[in-house]
Design brief:
- The protein has two domains: 272 residues, NAD(P)-binding Rossmann-like Domain (Rossmann fold), CATH 3.40.50.720; 30 residues.
- The protein has nine helices and nine strands.
- The strands form two sheets. It has a seven-stranded parallel beta sheet, sandwiched between helices. Strands 7-8 form a two-stranded parallel sheet.
- Strand 5, helix 6 and strand 6 form a beta-alpha-beta unit.
- Helix 1 packs across helix 2, helix 4 packs parallel to helix 5 and helix 5 packs parallel to helix 6.
- The C terminus is likely disordered.
- GO terms for molecular function: oxidoreductase activity.
Length: 305
């Protein structure tokens, strides 16, 4: 069985992705974390059916993405444990949000930390794990993953990395770092093609996932756990739901998708144009439109759209 690596597996989307892979594929799942491997392993296994096979297929490794030597060490540990079993899936999940409201709130340490975690850590993970992909397409023996034997190398991005459609401002460090990681993915896709590495590079927008990162920006009207919640209309999901949607998108990829920036519906997101706002921004926009309809009448609104 081949290998999947979830970089940032201790909580939120990363943990949910590890649980999804253990439940729906036969891959060996490696989760990396800087928050304690034993605790991460326990948290992941608590959300899947117990069994010797499941426990055997899960490995958690200590890896701080701010330390290249730690990333290199983790890569070597994977090679030593799994030998020539190819890397079929790598997802860089780790991220941070420093939400500056204006230019005066930009902090040099926080801006550096944003790029260190959201961009540089992802780049260095690719650097040390891409060599594990192999030079030939793998056998189609990896139940529940990408057909055709290709590997997927992904980073979690966000629509707020858009440039042209940035109408609200703020979030300087986060926006800039997500725009940067989209460029990393595009550049990686070109290198994979040039080197004939059978991999698909993907930037992925999962929607707004209800985690510690987003809790201050998603209001009570968006409680994704309840059936029929408003949250889903605006792309706001629980971690397990977001993980399931991402894996559905991954399973539908082909070689032509490499370098793409896709959302949870599998639709392309233009790197320089944000189609929609996320979370509370989208909600505010739609509320404003509804108010405009009420005040100027539907005929006038239709003419102005």
């Amino acid at each position: 069985m081949s290998v999947a690596v979830i970089q940032g597996c201790s909580k939120g989307l990363g943990r949910a992705l590890a649980q999804n892979l253990l439940s729906t594929t036969n891959l060996n799942v490696i989760g990396t974390t800087a928050s304690g491997t034993a605790r991460a392993r326990e948290a992941i296994l608590s959300g899947v059916s117990n069994g010797s096979d499941t426990e055997k297929r899960l490995t958690t490794l200590d890896m701080d993405i701010r330390d290249e030597s730690a990333i290199q060490k983790a890569s070597k540990q994977v090679q030593e444990k799994f030998g020539d079993k190819p890397l079929r899936l790598l997802i860089n999940v780790s991220g941070m949000l420093h939400a500056e409201k204006n230019v005066m709130q930009i902090s040099h340490p926080e801006a550096l930390r944003s790029f260190e975690i959201n961009v540089i850590g992802h780049m260095l993970t690719f650097k040390h794990f891409v060599p594990l992909v192999g030079k030939e397409e793998g056998k189609e023996d990896d139940e529940g993953l990408l057909p055709g034997g290709r590997s997927v190398l992904a980073s979690i991005s966000a629509r707020v990395g858009s440039i042209q459609d940035n109408e609200l401002g703020g979030w300087y460090s986060y926006r800039a770092s997500k725009a940067a990681v989209n460029q990393v993915i595009k550049t990686l896709s070109l290198e994979l093609k040039a080197r004939k590495v059978p991999g698909v590079a993907l930037a992925y927008h999962p929607g707004t996932v209800r985690t510690d990162l987003s809790k201050d920006f998603v209001g009570p009207d968006f409680k994704a756990p309840s059936s029929g919640s408003k949250g889903r209309e605006y792309g706001i999901f629980n971690p397990d739901e977001a993980a399931s949607k991402m894996m559905n998108v991954v399973r539908g990829l082909d070689a032509n998708a490499s370098g793409s920036f896709l959302d949870w519906t599998g639709s392309k997101v233009k790197r320089w144009m944000c189609i929609n706002k996320v979370g509370y921004n989208l909600y505010a926009q739609r509320q404003a439109r509804a108010a405009s309809k009420r005040s100027i009448g539907y005929a006038a609104w239709d003419a102005l759209r």
